[in-house]
Amino acid sequence: MITQEYFMEIQILRKQGKGIRQIANELCLSRNTVRKYLRSKKPPKYHSNQKRPSKLDPFKAFLEKRIKNAGRHFIPATVLYREIKELGYQGGITILRDWVRKGKKQVESQKRVVRFETPPGHQAQVDWTVVSKGLYAFVMILGYSRCAYVEFVQSTNEESLMRCHQNAFEYFGGFCKELLYDNMKTVVIQRDKYGPSQHGFQKAFWDFSKHWGFIPRLCRPYRAKTKGKVERFIGYLKRSFYYPLVTKEDHDLYSLNYEVKKWLSEIANKRWIKELKSTPQRRFVEESKHLQPLAPAYFSDKRCQIRQIEIVRPHPLEIYEMTGDMI
């Protein structure tokens, strides 16, 4: 039986116009499996298996502290085995070696930070940030071009999240095949709920993603750098736009959204990015060709869209510092 994520990918890749052979090759599944789940309207159901306690579990706190105190000095599994035997450990050395090896690999992978680039139209990163009490910013950034969309809202609930997505898709004129999130409660109920990479998604958000045809991905827990593009942009948004603006004059929600839309088109999406040797606006010309076409609106009303203000207090763009952040 395949995972629920695989089931969703099969449905979405089909919606994107790919044939059975292409889907099978891309997901490393047999064509019969792809056919089976294309015919099925309901995703596979899993039942959580109770994890059997390990004989090593009572000693893991001691081992973690021991390894942490050793710092860069590696302690062999044989030494650790001898020490926990004295504390009453009754298990074998094999499970200890496996646990130590797994921990060592995790530490090594955390030390390696590699800039992750994606092809045009493949992935966008999404996040919320708190800008002040009761005020939040929704941010979506396209992975290839770094073109960004920002919307200020007063709630981060499920409906607000989905409406902001819809507005972002309309702003870009399309959307990426994959969207990357952290562990937002409005997106996922529980990571690895049914096993590795078998996440329990919120049903409302699951239905929303199927309607549009994008695949939700989760970044690795406690690894903000997995979605570093959106994290860096949030810092840039606050330094270059929000703080200079609100320290000059007061703004309500609607004028904030009007101003940020202007800042995006005139400043943020035109900034020079050293690593890319280009601007988001220039790279968006290529990325826009690879975005998925817009589907019928999930929400028919326009309550969450940015309202166009007829009279806006003008602000010279000099107040928005061109920081030249390398995002």
Give your account of this protein's structure.
- It is a single chain.
- The protein has 327 residues and is an alpha/beta fold.
- It folds into three domains: 36 residues; 55 residues; 197 residues, 2-Layer Sandwich (Nucleotidyltransferase, domain 5).
- Helix content is 41%, strand content 11%.
- The protein has a five-stranded mixed β-sheet, with helices on both faces.
- The longest helix has 19 residues.
- The radius of gyration is 24 Å and the shape is globular.
- One of its GO terms (molecular function) is DNA binding.
- InterPro entries: HTH_IS21_transposase_type (IPR017894), Integrase_cat-core (IPR001584), RNaseH-like_sf (IPR012337), RNaseH_sf (IPR036397).
- This is Transposase.
- Keywords: DNA recombination, DNA-binding, Transposition.
The CATH homologous superfamily of the largest domain: Ribonuclease H-like superfamily/Ribonuclease H
> What is the name of the CATH class of the largest domain?
Alpha Beta
Strand content: 5-15%
Spatial strand arrangement across the major sheet = 3-2-1-4-7
Number of helices: 11
Structural class: alpha/beta
Provide the succession of SSEs.
HHHHHHEEEHEEEHEHHH
Number of folding domains?
3
What is the straight-line distance between the termini? 41 Å
Percent of residues in helices comes to 40-55%
CATH architecture level-2 label of the largest domain: 2-Layer Sandwich
Globally, the shape reads globular
DSSP E strands, number? 7
